[in-house]
UniProtKB/TrEMBL annotation:
Keyword DNA-binding attached: yes
Domain of life: Bacteria
Domain HTH tetR-type: 20-80
Ranges annotated as DNA-binding: 43-62
The name this protein goes by in its record: TetR family transcriptional regulator
Pfam families attached to this UniProt entry: TetR_C_24, TetR_N
Lineage: Bacteria, Bacillati, Actinomycetota, Actinomycetes, Kitasatosporales
Record key words, sorted: DNA-binding
Entry keyword annotation includes Transcription: no
C-alpha cells in the first residue's frame, strides 16, 4: 500500500464513528486545515472547500468552527485514554505495562501525527466549557500512567523519586512525536514506539 493510500485508510478508521459521511468529511478536512494553517488562521470556508462542500453545508453538521475542534479533540483524547487504560489494566508487572503504554501511545502519535498535532497544540482555542471537559480526559490519562509508574516505584522495579514529574516527562516525550514525525522520515510508527518504550524504561531505571 502506498503512503497516500495508507494515510487515507488510517483517516477512515480514525473517524469511523463520525456520521453521516458529510460530517466525517468535514472533520477530516478540519484536521488537515488546522494542522496546516493553525486553528485561528483557518476559516469555515477553508474547511468546507477541502471537504468539497459549500460553507452553508458545513453549518448543517457543525454550528461553529470551535465545535469541529471540540469533536476532533474529544475523539483524539478518548483514544489516548483507551490506549493508556488498556496498558494500565493489563495483568502484567509495572515494567511490561509501562512498556506497552509508551509503545502504543508514542506509536499512535506517529501514525496519526496530523490529528495529534491538532488535539495537543490547539487546546487553548476551545471554549471554557469544552476545555474543561477535554482537560478532564487528560487528567484521567495522567492518573493511569502515574499509577503504573508508582507501582513500579513501590515494587522496586523503577527508580522514580518524583513520580508526578516522571509521568509528565513521559507524556511530554510521547506527545512531542506529533510535532516532528513525518511519514516520509526514516522511522516507521512501530519503530518510534519501540524506541520510546526502551528510552522510557531506561529513564525510570527499570530492573
Amino acid at each position: 500500500m502506498g503512503a497516500a493510500a495508507q494515510r487515507a485508510a488510517e483517516e477512515s478508521e480514525e473517524w469511523a464513528g463520525v456520521t453521516p459521511d458529510a460530517a466525517r468529511r468535514l472533520v477530516s478536512a478540519a484536521v488537515e486545515a488546522f494542522a496546516e494553517r493553525g486553528y485561528h488562521a483557518t476559516t469555515t470556508r477553508d474547511i468546507a472547500g477541502r471537504a468539497g462542500m459549500s460553507p452553508a453545508a458545513l453549518y448543517i453538521h457543525y454550528k461553529t468552527k470551535e465545535e469541529l475542534l471540540y469533536r476532533i479533540s474529544g475523539i483524539g483524547h478518548e483514544k489516548a485514554l483507551r490506549i493508556i487504560s488498556a496498558a494500565a489494566e493489563a495483568e502484567a508487572g509495572p515494567t511490561e505495562r509501562l512498556r506497552d503504554a509508551v509503545r502504543t501511545f508514542a506509536r499512535w502519535h506517529a501514525e496519526h501525527h496530523t490529528t495529534a498535532r491538532v488535539i495537543q497544540y490547539e487546546l487553548q482555542a476551545l471554549s471554557p466549557e469544552h476545555y474543561t471537559e477535554i482537560a478532564g480526559l487528560r487528567r484521567r490519562t495522567d492518573r493511569l500512567l502515574r499509577q503504573i509508574i508508582q507501582d513500579g516505584a513501590d515494587s522496586g522495579e523503577f527508580r522514580a523519586d518524583d513520580v508526578p514529574g516522571t509521568t509528565l516527562a513521559v507524556l511530554s516525550l510521547c506527545v512531542d512525536v506529533a510535532r516532528w514525525f513525518s511519514a516520509d522520515g526514516p522511522r516507521t510508527p512501530d519503530e518510534v514506539g519501540a524506541l520510546y518504550a526502551d528510552l522510557v524504561l531506561r529513564m525510570v531505571g527499570a530492573q
